[in-house]
Write a structure and sequence with these properties.
Blueprint lengths: L2 H33 L5 E4 L7 E2 L4 E9 L7 E7 L9 E2 L6 E6 L7 E10 L2 E4 L3 E4 L6 E9 L2 E9 L4 E5 L9 E8 L2 E5 L10 E8 L2 E8 L5 E7 L1
InterPro entries: FN3_dom, FN3_sf, Ig-like_fold
Keywords: Signal
Organism: Flavobacterium ardleyense
Length: about 230
């Protein structure tokens, strides 16, 4: 072999080896990228038709449909009064990939936004933004159970949308019909049974909403506070 040929061979051999190593490394990196996990796939199975809503709670159902190659380490529902809530807002944490989250302690007659979420080592993904409103007292009728000195009786109370009320006792329809006013501050009801009378001579109710029930006290003049409870018809 001629001297020049030998030199070219000795130079080319390590060059070929270097190119081979580079090609193998590129292929390995490409394979690693293709196998890299992604954030999970998660959907909400709650719709306008099946959503469960009360005055202070809303239930959202979710399902992690794929872990995308990495174990799911957190999942649940996040919510806010603003659209597209994230896990930095309020959230639930569930243990199963098919789950139901009941969000409690909400405010009546308020619109909330919800998104299901799931997290793995690759990150967090979200379902579509959904918005639902808690129930409103407007145009609702309730069955009040009143207690006074060991005696109890029932009354039907309708809360009209204009802030007025109609009180009637079903045991004697029309006999005790009374017209009053109502207001709601958060989940606290203030109800004056008879707005035509001075507040010292008419029944005054203060109640707290919880789910689809209400409990509280009422007073009449200087008499001690009495207890009432109510459920919506």
């Amino acid at each position: 072999m001629k001297t020049n040929q030998i030199k070219r061979y000795l130079v080319a051999k390590p060059l070929f080896a270097m190119l081979f190593v580079l090609a193998f490394t590129f292929m390995s990196c490409d394979n690693d990228d293709n196998n890299e996990s992604q954030a999970p796939l998660v959907i909400s199975t709650t719709t306008d038709e099946n959503v469960a809503i009360t005055y202070t709670s809303i239930k959202i159902d979710g399902e992690v449909t794929s872990d995308q190659g990495s174990t799911v380490i957190a999942r649940g529902v996040c919510w806010s009064t603003n659209s597209n809530p994230t896990i930095n807002d309020s959230k639930t944490t569930e243990t199963s990939n098919i789950y139901s989250s009941t969000i409690n302690n909400l405010i009546a007659n308020t619109n909330y936004h919800f998104r299901v979420y799931a997290t793995n080592s690759a990150g967090t993904s979200y379902g579509l933004n959904q918005n639902f409103s808690t129930s409103t007292l407007n145009a609702s009728t309730w069955n009040f159970l009143l207690t006074n000195s060991g005696q109890t009786w029932n009354a039907d109370v309708t809360f009209n949308t204009d802030g007025t009320t109609v009180y009637d006792e079903p045991s004697s329809p029309g006999t005790y019909t009374t017209y009053g006013t109502w207001s709601l501050n958060g989940n606290t009801l203030t109800y004056d049974m008879d707005s035509s009378e001075n507040t010292n001579t008419s029944y005054q109710f203060t109640g707290t909403l919880l789910n689809n029930t209400m409990t509280g006290t009422y007073n009449f003049g200087s008499y001690p506070d009495q207890i009432f409870s109510a459920v919506e018809y």
